[in-house]
Design brief:
The complex is a heterodimer of chains A (337) and B (290).
Chain A: H1 5-20, H2 24-49, H3 57-75, H4 81-101, H5 106-126, H6 128-131, E1 137-138, H7 147-168, H8 171-181, H9 183-188, H10 193-219, E2 221-222, H11 224-227, H12 230-244, H13 251-267, H14 269-281, H15 284-294, H16 297-311, H17 315-318, H18 320-326
Helix pairs in contact in A: 1-7, 2-7, 2-8, 2-10, 2-12, 2-13, 3-4, 3-5, 3-10, 3-12, 4-10, 7-10, 8-10, 12-13, 13-16, 14-15
Chain B: H1 2-32, H2 39-55, H3 60-88, H4 96-116, E1 121-122, E2 131-134, E3 137-140, H5 141-163, H6 165-175, H7 177-182, H8 187-209, E4 214-215, H9 220-234, H10 239-259, H11 265-279, H12 285-288
Antiparallel strand pairs in B: 1-4, 2-3
Helix pairs in contact in B: 1-5, 1-6, 1-8, 1-9, 1-10, 2-3, 2-4, 2-8, 2-9, 3-4, 3-8, 5-6, 5-8, 6-8, 9-10, 9-11, 10-11
The chains are: A mainly alpha (337), B mainly alpha (290).
Chain lengths: 337, 290
């Protein structure tokens, strides 16, 4: 029970949050955070646990989003049906994806996944008759209030993290880790590495696709450059997991929170701090600096990645002991080494 | 037929530049075993260096001599202070160095955006749009010069790798790092120099490209993609392969653009890439054994 204390506490707080917080802006951030929990955790099961570092997760996200959008534009059914089919559509894309990428290892795998992700974006752009091309797809949001979206996102996040946790703690999960640690040794022990890599990819693709379908319903607009974006999704998914902790169950959750907060922190100019200071002191230099900070969130991400990889290579969760030791000066009860 | 020949010529000329980009990448790949996903961004920086110099009236081909050393130093610094420290750290994923280059790429792009905004910049020279004709085929002057200089650099690179001590050390490190260390090669220093060289070479490609291309901060991404496609086509770590890969990609792109339509240019490259990964893993290196 003690092991589950913090996750359950977090869940309780998240479940009660809309009762306390009425601000739409804040709820929007929380929805983004929850969507990132889903994507980051999905990336993590494939890369963090199975060792297959994918640079193409935008493909699954985009396919999920487009499933929802295309169901609406072509079949005139509610885009919410995308939540039923988006995950499976992403899974279907995932199978050829795996067939192409899994014979490859390490850097080759990463490059192949990157190329596939980019390839699918080009296909979505060129196939104008089917996808609408660069015009994109626009739908009317179902709910005006953000609260329903919040709870749907929360349910999705909980389900994805829970399912990933279940799998990681079961036999396939141990197979995943053995593949990550040494694929040849795993194969020689009789583990069907291709099967388990595909299983890991399927779970990963499924949840990422679901996140995409939710995104379509929530944001109401998609185009190929938004949802298949290499930097906004494929790379961001990696960052979320890396910052939080690769190969840990709750790492991506922490990472998603840090990344969304970080992004907003920059985008609002340290939550309006600079504007406030600028008004107070009447100095234009501060205002100019504030404007610069607002545009600097990608730069901030880049620096954050460099710092995290240099000093916390296992992420906030993975290196928690190290943080406690160095930042809070708390000696862990038992030092392992 | 003329259209075909014209496409062929354009492809081969562009292939020279691509080869230069690819050689830098393949050197880094060979010695360190990682993909440098900041390669295109380094080229983008070199192009901005050329741009700044051109506003002071310096010809792009002259700024080659400024941009290359500058980018060499930047590459050295990146390897020394950002990538090499990672080798000693124990992590779950061995790909941390690759992810680091992603971070570096983001930082470089955003710094360029801060300094120069997202607007497209042009460096127009007297020869930017000049062409000369051989029969019915027209040759762009700037591209032809770029092709010539690229060949020169490639030849120099070969000489360096084959004949000098440092070049031999680099090849030794690429073949077997541990063995090279045992033979007294300071492999850490070699990785630093190699990254510098790779950056310098891609800087040269950037300078040569400047008169015929436009410059914007996000240009790095597509060129990083091209660089790794070239490297995979040629085979990781193979310098000869990078030349073949560069020319193949450039030819495929020109053919795709001529016969399928401009929007298919990128798809053709990616398709070839995936086909090679599937059917010829190891790239042209497997065929030529070089």
């Amino acid at each position: 029970m003690k092991r589950n204390f913090y996750p359950l506490l977090l869940l309780a707080v998240l479940a009660l949050l809309p009762l306390a917080v009425k601000s739409n802006y804040f709820l929007h951030l929380m929805i983004l955070f929850l969507i990132w929990v889903v994507i980051g955790s999905s990336w993590n099961i494939l890369a963090g646990f199975t060792g297959q570092v994918s640079f193409g997760h935008a493909a699954f996200f985009g396919v999920g989003a487009y499933t929802a959008g295309l169901l609406f534009t072509h079949l005139q059914v509610s885009p919410w049906w995308g939540m039923a089919f988006g995950g499976f559509a992403a899974l279907l894309i995932g199978l050829p994806f795996g067939a192409i990428c899994f014979p490859l290892r390490g850097a080759y795998f990463a490059l192949a996944s990157l190329a596939l992700g980019e390839g699918i974006r080009h296909v979505a752009t060129i196939a104008e008759n089917f996808t609408g091309g660069m015009v994109g797809i626009m739908i009317m949001p179902t709910f005006i209030s953000k609260v329903p979206y919040y709870y749907i996102a929360l349910a999705l996040a909980v389900m994805s993290v829970l399912s990933i946790r279940l799998i990681v703690n079961s036999k396939p999960g141990y197979y995943f880790v053995s593949i990550r640690e040494d694929q040849d040794a795993a194969a020689s022990l009789g583990i069907n590495t291709t099967l388990y890599k595909n299983l890991s990819l399927s779970i990963s693709a499924f949840w990422t696709g679901m996140a995409g379908a939710l995104y379509m319903n929530y944001m109401g607009f998609i185009d190929p450059h938004v949802v298949f974006s290499l930097h906004d999704y494929s790379v961001m998914a990696i960052l979320v997991a890396i910052v939080g902790g690769v190969g840990t169950i709750y790492g991506p959750t922490v990472g998603a929170f840090i990344m969304v907060a970080f992004q907003e922190f920059f985008r609002t100019g340290f939550f309006g701090l600079f504007e406030y200071l600028g008004d107070k002191t009447g100095s234009t230099a501060v205002s100019v600096l504030g404007d610069a900070v607002k545009q600097a969130h990608v730069l901030g991400f880049g620096i954050l990645v460099i710092v995290v990889i240099l000093y916390l290579p296992n992420g906030v969760v993975g290196d928690w002991k190290k943080i406690r030791r160095n930042v809070f000066r708390i000696k862990p009860a038992k030092e392992g080494v | 037929m003329d259209v075909f020949l014209q496409t062929l010529v354009a492809g081969i000329l562009k292939g020279g530049l691509y080869a230069l980009i690819g050689i830098g990448m393949t050197l880094i790949m060979g010695v360190m075993g990682i993909i440098n996903l900041a390669h295109g961004q380094l080229m983008m920086l070199a192009m901005y260096v050329t741009f700044v110099l051109s506003t002071m009236g310096v010809d792009p081909y002259v700024s080659l001599f400024v941009a290359m050393p500058l980018l060499f130093l930047l590459g050295v610094a990146i390897q020394k202070f950002l990538l090499n420290p990672l080798i000693k750290v124990e992590t779950i994923l061995p790909e941390n160095q690759v992810l680091m280059t992603v971070g570096i790429a983001m930082v470089l792009t955003e710094i360029a955006r801060f300094a120069f905004t997202s607007d497209y910049k042009y460096v127009t020279t007297s020869y930017s749009s000049k062409t000369f004709h051989l029969g019915n085929i027209s040759f762009s002057v700037a591209l032809t010069v770029a092709f010539g200089i690229a060949l020169l650099f490639t030849a120099a690179m070969f000489w360096f790798l084959l004949k000098t001590d440092l070049g031999r050390s680099i090849r030794a490190t690429a073949q077997d790092k541990d063995a090279a260390t045992l033979m007294g090669v300071n492999t850490e220093r070699i990785t630093v120099i190699t990254f510098g060289l790779g950056s310098g070479l891609v800087a040269a490609a950037g300078c040569l490209l400047t008169p015929i291309y436009y410059i914007f901060p996000d240009l790095g991404g597509p060129f990083t993609a091209k660089a790794f496609i070239i490297t995979i086509l040629g085979g990781l770590g193979s310098t000869v392969g990078a030349i073949f890969g560069g020319v193949t990609l450039a030819l495929a792109e020109s053919m795709g653009a001529t016969y399928l339509g401009m929007e298919y240019e990128d798809i053709v490259g990616l398709t070839i890439f995936i086909l090679v990964l599937l059917f010829l893993p190891g790239g042209f290196k497997r065929l030529t054994k070089v």
